């Protein structure tokens, strides 16, 4: 039926952004790929024992050590003289990347292994019931940062993972979003032409945790990018080589589409704080498209 | 149980997730299809296939009915139809 390297029959929710991103990534990487996976939604829904959705070699060990496992796999492949023909992917969710797995990921970057690390960023620990992670955005309602009389959801900012990656001096750092499927394919293919550790962070909307209808996953991905809240950027050897230009939309369009931001919609001060994050991103990476006028002509 | 647990590649196909559909399922009308393959590209399940226009198919034994293919179709050639109204 299908000739994808990620089979149907996995147990992801209907409309799961992550399962879409995974299929695009592995199809772009090709069949000569070995995948090491942190614990997370992806590991749980793709490998429900005794079944597996993967049609490439796949290793799962612990929550925090996919980069360390992949480093060991790379060492073994070098010993066997097979490294040049095989792509290596280590991957995890946002919690496994930014919180629990950061030490082994940092070690992989520091030692300079030839591995592509992919972070599927759905902005909370969705698998265990929507707890806040380091990559949860400001003001999002999660079960550990609940909305209340004095609380507007998550009080902390999103951890700047691409900047942490850049600080390690690695040759390729990029972000992408399932709102732009071709962008994911292009970046994965490009990453495998570069030797050394690589980091790709893909924004994967989650209908369960973000509280929106399951057919809107792509729209959520696009809106995050178009409002400036999720800049699509690409660094090679520490230099910014490309950004996705946008005509910025107000952040309300993104916020009102999701249940997790419901508590701040009636509070203009909180919305201003979110808009400031988007404005900061737009200025920092030069996201604004130049061909468009600043204000539409009346 | 000790040691590595090894599963057969692609064995998740034994798991027919089509039973998860609760509301509607996609119907490919095969009228205005231009063969852009966006429906294949965006299916989270990977159960849409086809190579030519008006020949796209969905495998309903796996489709969970999320509706992303119907939303992305530029020619509105895919409709989400309530299950009980179908023959």
Keywords:
heterodimer; A: 298 residues; alpha/beta; Rossmann fold; eight-stranded mixed β-sheet; 35% helix; globular; B: 87 residues; alpha+beta; Alpha-Beta Plaits; two-stranded antiparallel sheet; two-stranded antiparallel ribbon; 2 helices; 4 strands
Report on this model:
The complex is a heterodimer of chains A (298) and B (87). Chain A has 298 residues and is an alpha/beta fold. Chain A has helices at 17-29, 41-46, 66-80, 94-98, 102-111, 161-167, 181-191, 207-210, 217-226, 252-255, 268-285; strands at 33-37, 58-60, 87-93, 116-121, 172-177, 198-203, 233-236, 239-243. Chain A has a single domain (17-285), classed as 3-Layer(aba) Sandwich (Rossmann fold), CATH 3.40.50. Chain A has eleven helices and eight strands. The model of chain A has no long low-confidence stretch (mean pLDDT 91). With 87 residues, chain B is of the alpha+beta class. Chain B has a single domain, classed as 2-Layer Sandwich (Alpha-Beta Plaits), CATH 3.30.70.20. Chain B has helices at 38-42, 68-72; strands spanning 24-28, 48-49, 57-58, 78-82. In chain B, strand 2 (48-49) and strand 3 form a beta hairpin. Chain B is globular and about 50 Å long.
Short description:
The complex is a heterodimer of chains A (298) and B (87). Chain A is an alpha/beta fold.
| Largest sheet strand order of chain A | 2-1-3-4-6-5-7-8
Q: What's the CATH architecture of chain A?
A: 3-Layer(aba) Sandwich
Low-confidence stretches of chain A: none
Strand content of chain B: 15-25%
Name the largest protein-protein interface in this structure: A-B, 39 and 33 residues
> What is the gyration radius of chain B calculated from CA atoms?
15 Å
* Topology pattern of chain A, helix = H, strand = E: HEHEHEHHEHEHEHHEEHH
CATH H-tier superfamily of chain A: Thiamin diphosphate (ThDP)-binding fold, Pyr/PP domains
Indicate the radius of gyration of chain A in whole angstroms. 19 Å
Biggest sheet features of chain B: 2 strands, antiparallel
């Amino acid at each position: 039926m299908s000739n994808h390297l990620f089979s149907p029959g996995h147990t992801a929710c209907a409309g799961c952004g992550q399962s879409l991103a995974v299929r695009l990534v592995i199809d772009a990487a090709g069949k000569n790929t070995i995948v090491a996976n942190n614990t997370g939604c992806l590991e749980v829904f793709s490998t429900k024992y005794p079944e597996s959705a993967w049609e490439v070699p796949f290793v799962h060990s612990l929550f925090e050590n996919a980069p360390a496992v992949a480093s060991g796999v790379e060492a073994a492949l070098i010993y066997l003289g097979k490294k040049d023909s095989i792509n290596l992917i280590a991957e995890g969710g946002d919690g496994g990347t930014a919180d629990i797995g950061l030490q082994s990921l940092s070690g992989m970057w520091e030692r300079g292994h030839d591995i592509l690390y992919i972070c599927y960023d759905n902005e909370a620990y969705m698998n265990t019931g929507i707890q806040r992670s380091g990559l949860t955005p400001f003001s999002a309602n999660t079960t550990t940062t609940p909305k209340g009389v004095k609380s507007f959801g998550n009080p902390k900012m999103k951890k700047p993972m691409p900047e942490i990656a850049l600080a390690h001096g690695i040759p390729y750092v990029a972000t992408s979003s399932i709102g732009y499927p071709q962008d994911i394919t292009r970046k994965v293919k490009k990453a495998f032409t570069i030797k050394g550790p690589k980091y790709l962070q893909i924004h994967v909307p989650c209908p369960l945790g973000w509280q929106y209808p399951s057919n809107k996953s792509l729209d959520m991905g696009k809106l995050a990018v178009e409002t400036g809240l999720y800049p699509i950027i690409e660094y090679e050897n520490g230099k910014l080589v490309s950004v996705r230009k946008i005509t910025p939309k107000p952040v309300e369009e993104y916020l009102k589409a999701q249940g997790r931001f419901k508590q701040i919609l009636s509070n203009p001060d909180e919305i201003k704080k979110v808009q400031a994050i988007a404005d900061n991103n737009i200025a920092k990476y030069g996201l604004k498209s130049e061909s468009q006028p600043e204000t539409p002509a009346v | 149980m000790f040691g590595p647990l090894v599963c057969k590649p692609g064995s998740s196909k034994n798991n027919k997730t089509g039973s998860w559909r609760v509301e509607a399922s996609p119907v490919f009308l095969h009228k205005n299809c231009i063969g852009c393959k966006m429906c294949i590209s965006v299916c989270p399940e990977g159960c849409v296939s086809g190579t030519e226009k008006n020949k796209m198919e969905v495998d309903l034994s796996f489709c969970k009915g999320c509706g992303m293919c119907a939303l992305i179709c530029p020619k509105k050639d895919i409709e989400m139809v309530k299950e009980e109204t179908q023959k």
